[in-house]
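Workshop exercise sheet. Pairs work together: one partner reads the sequence aloud, the other fills in the structure field after running the prediction. Swap roles for the next sheet.
Pair: D.N. / O.F.
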Amino acid sequence: MARSERLLALLQLLRRHRRPVTAQALADALEISVRTVYRDIASLQLQGADIAGEAGIGYQLRPGFLLPPLMFAEEEIEALVLGMRWVEKRADARLAGAAGNALAKVAAVLPDDLRRRLDDETLLVGPAAAPAIEVDMAALRDAIRRQSKLALRYRDADGGDSQRVVWPFALGFFEKTQVLAAWCELRQDFRHFRCDRIGRCDSLDERYPRRRQSLLKEWRQLLGIAADAP
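Structure field:
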């Protein structure tokens, strides 16, 4: 790996960690020596990277630092295009449109040779075989962002309807369905609501009393999901 590529890879690695990471962990991930990590950290700091920490404690890239102009390896382009195409095929119209716009913005700043690879990408996404979703998915995402309560009319697996007031904090995208994760006031517990079974969704214009991040953390712990998992 060339030194410039190694420095960029080190920045990317630091960016993925929310907490300080040791030089040994960085060295193991990049398959280089700890001594090289120390030299590279010092070089990045001299070039303006806002990296906090020191040897023996760990390093962390402070928020707000911008990475150098976009450069992608071939498999990174494949991953990017495949992900965007999946969203275009499987998500609602607004999110699909946003994925297309995002991919166009990335293409606009890529060097010519990488842009050609993006245009020639051969990884395809097939059509979804999922039940129709009646609820406005954009409204669900907006409620999650605003941390506002939702009133749902929900149909269970046996066809029975119920009225729920929930605190939405996450959306899960699966092969055949999409699921809203929320705290349910009726059950006083976390519940998962299949979006194709939500008959109606009304925003109550009322923020729920707990922070979304706190609900998400507690839910992850309950299900045994790692904090860094998507």
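Discussion prompt: Helices lie at 3-16, 23-30, 34-46, 74-90, 93-109, 112-119, 137-146, 212-223. What would you look at next?
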